[in-house]
Amino acid sequence: MTFERFRDLAGRMLDAIPPVFREGIAGLVVERETVSHPTLPGVYTLGECVTQDWPDPLGGQGELQSHIVLYHGSFEGLAGDDPQFDWEAELWETMLHELLHHREAAAVEDALDRFDWAVDQNYLRLAGRPFDPTFPRVLPADEDGAMRLEGETFVESVVGPADIEARFRWRERSYTLRVPSTEEPVWIRIRNLAGGRLWVIVRRRLSWWRRLLAAGAGGPTPILERRALPRGPA
After folding, report:
1. Partners of residue 178 on adjacent β-strands
2. How many CB atoms lie within 10 A of CB 153?
3. What is the block-wise mean pLDDT of the chain (234 residues), using blocks of 10 residues?
4. CB atoms closer than 10 angstroms to residue 66
5. Where would I find the beta strands (DSSP E) of 150-220?
6. Which helix (H) or strand (E) is 230 found in, with range?
7. C-alpha distances in Å from residue 134, one per residue of 39, 147, 221
8. DSSP letters for 80-94
9. CA-to-CA distance for 141 and 120, rounded, in angstroms?
10. For residues 157 and 91, what is the distance between their CA atoms, to the nearest angstrom?
């Protein structure tokens, strides 16, 4: 898609959003440049929400306003890597994502920022790079404590210092699985549930000084595969 067509399409999309949801959006900026993610190789920044306070004439805080910035070159980069790339769908998703950033900034909330951070950490995990093993905690959890991101499900299980089994809930049933003796968090993919898309994150209940030693070790997060055994209703 040419830059001119991309810019016109973005403008029409923004105009199609009801004014009540565009309140505080000062404008749309479409740039030609390609912006790579600052820390994740092979990932592009498609857009940004640039937000600032505009003081009122009396020197007060005034209104919070944002510009939505879109990078045509970044979309081109993604399209070059994916023959099935849907320009219009990706543009809509990016526009609405940045609009939500604006609305959260106006409400002094950061849920979307935390979600974006979790997506980055998940990308690092999938790329085999060091990641923060606690990132699923920023995601909303269902009644079983399951957290979901990009087709995968994560649950946490806390075990005692000497336990060799972990217990967790999945779809109103209780399951157990064997766990290693390591004191650092362990990620275990459950082969026989959810098509292998379910992960149990096992943490040990340790004394403060053992937690300090484990945190200072700084090694890679252990990632294993196990089968879980049902233990009846939870």
Report:
1. 165
2. 19
3. 94 89 86 84 84 56 78 91 88 89 71 82 85 87 87 92 90 91 86 92 70 52 90 60
4. 22
5. 152-159, 165-170, 173-178, 186-190, 198-204
6. strand 229-233
7. 19, 12, 11
8. HH-TT--HHHHHHHH
9. 19
10. 39
